[in-house]
Predict the 3D structure of the following.
Amino acid sequence: MIQRFRKLFLPLVLTTGILAGCASNADSNKAEEASTLKVMYHDERSFYQQYGMLFTALHPNVEIEVISTQNVRPEEGQDYEKMMMDYIEEQKPDVIMVGVDQYEELAADGKLVELDPFIEKDKFDLEGILPGVVEYLKEKGNGSLYGLTPEFYSQAIFYNKDLFDRYNIEYPRDKMTWEELLHLASLFPTDGTGKDRIYGLKAGYQTSLFELGNTIGLANDLNFVDPNSLQVTINTDSWKSIFESALMAIKSGTLYTEDPNSMNGNFNTYEDYLMRDPFISGRVAMMLEGTYKLNEIKEATASLKDKAVTNWDLVTVPVNPQTPDQSTYVNFYNIFAIHASAENRDAAWDFIKYIHGDDYARVAAKANTGNFPIRTKYIKDDEGRNLAAFYALKPAQPQMYRNYDKLPEMFTSEFYQLANEEMKAAEDGSKSVSEALDSLQNKLDKLMLEAKQKEDAGAVDAEQEAGGGAEAGSTDAAVEEESAPEAAE
């Protein structure tokens, strides 16, 4: 009910706020020429809720046509990325919304319009944008800026000051390593039962050995497979060290394990729903969570008064000691760019300029969508908490998911099941971490070989089928050619 209310109420709040604060802008745009702007987005309804209602209110002479990406529906065996690129070429949108990999590919192929000339012409302010984002996008654009993203999602370590004070433990700090974080968590007691039980750390919703190791490996910028050579790289000293540290943390009893029954939605009251969270109810000293958790804690504080945690703060997520100023936990999914075939580049730039501008960020920051606006000066906390923990580190694309689409589909579909099975054996004690990794490496090598053979065979079949079709077409053409003189006679 609450989420539904937000979805219905949010567009109205945003539109009212923008119009009240930007009436002068609307007046200045009355004289702009009528034009049509083609924007590629998930679907028309969500586009207008998020961006379109606000933009068209201030640019009434711009007619927006939404090109929905939901029209791209690959069947089994079809390449989604290729279909999406073909769809873009077919529809020729002015503004496209892409992910990091698509952005990099399109920029390299000369399919995007460089934004730097527009930025210089309009003196568009790039200051105050999430640190490292512009540099990151320029790096992906081979030195030029081809797109921007209006919002981002991130994670941080929330910590309960009262629990740290009670047990006389030093507060966590920014830029710790995972090893340091797990050690800090281990300083909390592991005795007690039920509601009296205190945990040092909640590291996500899954605390199996593989999932925890995967989370730590992500921060340390490791990967399981080299997507270019298709070599499995899981049986290394780095992964062994990570899984052994993760296993030690699990065995210590200091990690909170989510009860599946607590997530089934059967709550008598809204208070029960909020208090099922161990951090909100004061039973977990630290948790790794995303930006959306701020709203949930705020609601709990307002609804539960003295029952919910109030004395808490934030530090950055654990970092790779080799790159302590970067984080693989900073994510942005929607990069907006102007396609090279755009017929209305000026209107396209006006749209991009608007949704990345100061006015939009100021109001969007109040929307409580779970994401933050890209302009960080509007990310504030009335209690003075360290919200900078969410954006102090520069974004870095993790090795683990880089060029992930190059992996054979058969491999990716079976990888996690095999990995979980082997790490479960290590967690249960039937295998050592080294034995589990040896076994997993062998199984994955075999799986990769089979997946490649299957993929290669499918490619050959497709080529033969295409060749057969071409040959048949040539035969038909020859028959028509031979029949033509007869018909003439």
In short: The two ends are 78 Å apart (CA to CA). Residues 2-153+331-390 form a domain with the D-Maltodextrin-Binding Protein; domain 2 fold (CATH 3.40.190.10).
